[in-house]
Write a structure and sequence with these properties.
The protein is α/β, with parallel strands linked by helices. It has three helices and eight strands; from the N terminus they run αβαββββαβββ. Strands 1-4-3-2 form a four-stranded mixed sheet, covered by helices on one side. Strands 5-8-7-6 form a four-stranded mixed sheet, with no helix packed on it. It is globular, with a radius of gyration of 22 Å. It comes from Niabella pedocola.
Length: 156
């Protein structure tokens, strides 16, 4: 009888430990992708590749209405053709990308004549957050807001 109790106790403890490991070490929800709806797929794709610097990855549909870009180890940005016109968005509704050198990124924006601003809207200015991270804001060809910052914790 004691042996059966010992085996049952071992099984219960093992199952509880496995459950605790799964819930403590792995989030229940993971980000997979973000999607934006655009008026000109070629123009948007060129912007995200050439200006933002994202790597384009294969997309499964192959119908000429999608472009996918790698945004992290297992996340992508899906650009989808079909919007009838660019819209106006609030700056707080944005995507954010981190770069190793904000100065280098700003030089690229200036070379391509892409305007940027600080969080308050001052053109050509940089915001420094309370934690020391520097950030700028720009819009893509469909007016989606993008924050670019130099958060060093992203490279740890």
């Amino acid at each position: 009888m004691k042996r059966v109790q010992l085996i049952l106790t071992f099984i219960v403890v093992t199952v509880m430990n496995l459950h605790a490991q799964q819930s403590n070490n792995r989030p229940v929800v993971l980000s997979n992708h973000q999607a934006i709806y655009v008026t000109d797929l070629k123009k948007a794709a060129a912007f995200y590749a050439d200006i933002i610097g994202l790597e384009q990855v294969d997309e499964p549909f192959k119908i000429g209405k999608h472009a996918w870009f790698k945004t992290g180890p297992k996340t992508t940005l899906h650009i989808i053709l079909g919007a009838d016109k660019p819209r106006e968005y609030f700056k707080n509704n944005h995507m954010c990308f981190t770069v190793a050198s904000l100065d280098d990124f700003i030089r690229k924006l200036n070379q391509h004549k892409v305007p940027y601003e600080d969080v308050s809207g001052k053109q050509g200015s940089i915001t420094t957050r309370v934690d020391g991270v520097k950030q700028i804001w720009l819009r893509d060809p469909d007016n989606y807001w993008i924050e670019i910052n130099n958060d060093p914790s992203m490279f740890e």
